């Protein structure tokens, strides 16, 4: 079974730690490991390094190879230009279908946290067994919701179709994206909705057939790139063709057009969190609600429900602070309320074209 970790985003919601030159997935956010390293290590030992691939941007290939030095160099697939997830998934699929058309493949992301790692691996392997029996199948791996989130996508599932290694596998019904408050509450209480993580298991052959069917503007170019794989002309062909692709999400390109009868859903509590923003990181790491989360040289006095991350040699201290996010790097100090995280992206965008653009 093959695993593909996508590690191409920039992650402005974790600024000032995450920058263009070194996005969030490469920074040591949890302990002494990056989330990319965590994503690769949680696949062990059920996936060998020869079974793991990483999709990223060309500027980050060397960073990936350095952080995952046991990964074969040609398993790091660098996009010469970011064209969104639709072309990115198509590229790795076009390559894997040449060598492993019927071997199950799993798509995961580099900026997430999964605490129940053994259960997570069991789910992936079980989903792999499902698609081995039926190669024209895609199995979505979802998280049982912990609360009625408005900021996450949801997946609706139907009746139980089978069990695989004591794990229920359900029929797929539909996707829903970032519902309003009342709808999210209804989903949470329904018992047939889960958080959509963007994780799935399928075969390269099936996914490639969906590109042929639904992506006529990408399929020929991806085919030409894949034909040059394992030849001396791959990099040249990739650089010439890939930047011409339209920017389009994988959801819009493929998933929204998928025949529901070709899909299943596994919904379990793997204690998943999207730690792509500071307040989400706090929620994932806090020992209890309203507890502080800290990193580095930090001294808190009468401080509640705050995240304080210090990446400098100086001591960061707080007194009588509540609901705050404080992040100190060697060149930027960010201080804001937890509720103000959505404004961070706008702040970073406002630095473009100014004397502080180098800080983005």
How would you describe what is shown here?
With 360 residues, this protein is an alpha/beta fold. The chain folds into 2 domains: 2-274, Spore Coat Polysaccharide Biosynthesis Protein SpsA, Chain A, CATH 3.90.550; 279-359, no CATH class. It has helices spanning 35-41, 61-67, 85-99, 117-133, 181-190, 204-214, 219-227, 234-241, 250-253, 278-285, 342-350; strands at residues 2-6, 28-30, 33-34, 52-57, 76-79, 105-109, 112-114, 138-143, 154-164, 167-176, 193-202, 263-268, 272-274, 293-295, 298-301, 307-310, 316-319, 324-328, 333-337. It has a 5-stranded mixed beta barrel with strand order 8-11-9-10-12. A 4-stranded mixed sheet has the order 14-16-18-19, covered by helices on one side. A two-stranded antiparallel sheet has the order 2-3. Helix 3 crosses helix 6 (204-214) and helix 7 runs antiparallel to helix 8 (234-241). The protein is globular. The two termini are 38 Å apart. The model has no long low-confidence stretch (mean pLDDT 94).
Number of strands: 19
Strand order of the largest sheet: 8-11-9-10-12
The residue ranges in which pLDDT falls below 50 over 5 or more consecutive positions are: none
Count helical runs: 11
- How are helices and strands ordered from N to C? EEEHEHEHEEHEEEHEHHHHEEHEEEEEEH
State the share of residues found in helices, binned by percent. 25-40%
From the 3D structure, determine the CATH topology of the largest domain.
Answer: Spore Coat Polysaccharide Biosynthesis Protein SpsA, Chain A
Class from secondary-structure proportions: alpha/beta
| Major β-sheet profile | 5 strands, mixed, barrel
Quaternary structure: single chain
According to CATH, the homologous superfamily of the largest domain is: Spore Coat Polysaccharide Biosynthesis Protein SpsA, Chain A
Mean pLDDT: 94
- The end-to-end span amounts to 38 Å
Name the CATH architecture of the largest domain.
Answer: Alpha-Beta Complex
Q: What percent strand? A: 25-35%
């Amino acid at each position: 079974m093959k695993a593909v970790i996508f590690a191409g985003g920039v992650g402005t919601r974790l600024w000032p730690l995450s920058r263009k030159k070194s996005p969030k997935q490469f920074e040591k956010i949890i302990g002494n490991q990056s989330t990319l390293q965590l994503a690769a290590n949680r696949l062990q030992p059920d996936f060998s390094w020869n079974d793991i691939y990483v999709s990223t941007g060309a500027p980050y290939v060397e960073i990936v190879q350095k952080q995952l030095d046991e990964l074969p160099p040609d398993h790091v697939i660098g996009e010469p230009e970011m064209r969104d997830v639709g072309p990115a998934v198509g590229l790795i699929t076009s390559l894997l279908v040449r060598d492993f058309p019927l071997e199950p493949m799993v798509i995961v992301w580099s900026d997430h946290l999964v605490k129940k790692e053994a259960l997570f691996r069991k789910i992936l392997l079980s989903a792999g067994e499902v698609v081995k029996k039926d190669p024209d199948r895609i199995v979505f791996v979802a998280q049982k919701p912990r609360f009625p989130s408005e900021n996450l996508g949801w997946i609706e599932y139907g009746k139980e179709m089978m069990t695989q290694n004591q794990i229920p596998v359900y029929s797929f019904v539909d996707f829903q994206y970032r519902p309003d408050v009342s709808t999210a509450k209804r989903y949470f209480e329904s018992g047939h909705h889960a958080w959509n993580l963007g994780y799935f298991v399928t075969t390269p052959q099936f996914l490639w057939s969906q590109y042929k069917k639904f992506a006529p503007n990408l399929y020929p170019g991806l085919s030409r790139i894949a034909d040059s794989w394992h030849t001396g002309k791959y990099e040249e062909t990739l650089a010439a063709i890939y930047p011409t692709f339209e920017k389009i999400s994988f959801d819009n390109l493929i998933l929204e057009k998928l025949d529901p009868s070709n899909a299943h859903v596994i919904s379990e509590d793997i204690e998943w969190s999207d730690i792509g923003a500071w307040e989400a990181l706090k929620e994932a790491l806090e020992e209890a609600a309203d507890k502080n989360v800290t990193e580095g040289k930090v001294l808190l006095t009468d401080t509640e429900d705050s995240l304080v991350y210090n990446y400098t040699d100086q001591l960061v201290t707080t007194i009588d602070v509540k609901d705050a996010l404080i992040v100190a790097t060697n060149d930027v100090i960010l201080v804001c309320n937890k509720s103000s995280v959505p404004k961070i992206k706008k702040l970073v965008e406002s630095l473009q074209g100014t004397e502080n653009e180098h800080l983005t």
